[in-house]
Amino acid sequence: MIVRRADPPQQLLSWPLRRASLRRASLRRASLRRSSLLWASLLVVASCGGSTPVGDGHDHDHDTGVHVVDPVEVAVDVRFEAEVREGRVVGGIPRFEVSIGEVVAVRITSDVSDQLHLHVYDAMADVGPGMEADLVVRADVPGVFEAELHGSGLRVFELEVS
Predict the structure, then answer these.
(1) CA-based radius of gyration for the chain
(2) 103: which strand partners?
(3) Lateral strand order in the sheet of 78-85
(4) Which of 149, 159, 161 is CA-nearest to residue 83?
(5) Higher pLDDT, 38 or 68
(6) Taking 80 as the threshold, does the pLDDT of residue 1 lie above it?
(7) pLDDT at 89 over 90
(8) What is the pTM of this model?
(9) Helix or strand holding residue 36 (H, E)
(10) Beta bridge partner(s), residue 29
(11) Best CA proximity match to 117, nearest among 90, 155, 76
(12) What are the start-end ranges of the H helices in 48-102?
C-alpha cells in the first residue's frame, strides 16, 4: 500500500493573497457607495434648492426666488399661457423663448389642484379648478428650464432664456 501525502487545498496556500484581494474589493464597494451617495445628493440639490418648507408633502424645500417679480410694480414684456387638462398639457409641452432681462408672465390653468414650480427661478404658484396661476419672473439666468406640477411631476412648459 502506497500512502501519499495530501496536498493542502489551493485556498490555504493563497490565503494571504486572497485576503488582500477581498480587502481591495471591500474598499472598492465602500468607495462606490460613497460616490453613489455623493452623486445622489448632488442630483437632489441641483434639481431644486432652498430653505422654506413646502407644505404639500413635497420632499424638498425652496427659497422665494430672487427672480420672481411683482407684475404690479414691473411691466411685463412677454406673456404666455399653458393649460393642463386630464393629466396632460393641452397641445403638448411648449417651450417659451425669451431674451435675457425680459420680464415674463406665464398663466397656467389646470383642472386639478397642485403646485407649479419653475426650476432654477424658484417661482411657484398654486393651480386648480376655477383659478389661474401666474408665474412672473425676470429672465436673467440663461438656459432652458422646466416647470412642473409638484404633486404629479407633470412637466408643464420649458422656458428658454438666451
Answers:
(1) 27
(2) 138
(3) 88-89, 78-85, 103-110, 132-138
(4) 149
(5) 68
(6) no
(7) yes
(8) 0.58
(9) helix 15-47
(10) none
(11) 155
(12) none
The answer to whether 118 and 112 are in contact (CB under 8 A) is: no
Return the C-alpha cell found at 74.
414691473
Q: What's the CA gap between 80 and 134, in Å, rounded?
A: 10
Partners of 87 in the β-ladder: none
- Percentage helix, strand, coil, to 5, in the chain? 25, 35, 40
Closest CA to 76 of 110, 107, 109: 107
Name, in order, each residue with C-beta under 8 angstroms of 51's C-beta and a sequence gap of 6 or more. 61, 62, 63
The pLDDT value given to residue 55: 40
- Which of 55 and 107 is assigned the larger pLDDT? 107
- Burial of 70 (C-beta count, 10 Å sphere; 0-12/13-18/19+): exposed
Residue given cell 490565503 in the structure block = 15
Question: Tell me, what's the pLDDT at 63?
Answer: 45
Residues of the chain above pLDDT 70, percent: 55
In the chain the first and final C-alpha atoms are separated, in Å, by 92
Ordered strands of the 95-98 beta sheet: 95-98, 155-161, 143-149, 114-118, 123-127
Q: How confident is the model at residue 38 (pLDDT cuts 50, 70, 90)?
A: low
Lowest mean pLDDT among 27-36, 63-72, 76-85, 153-162: 63-72
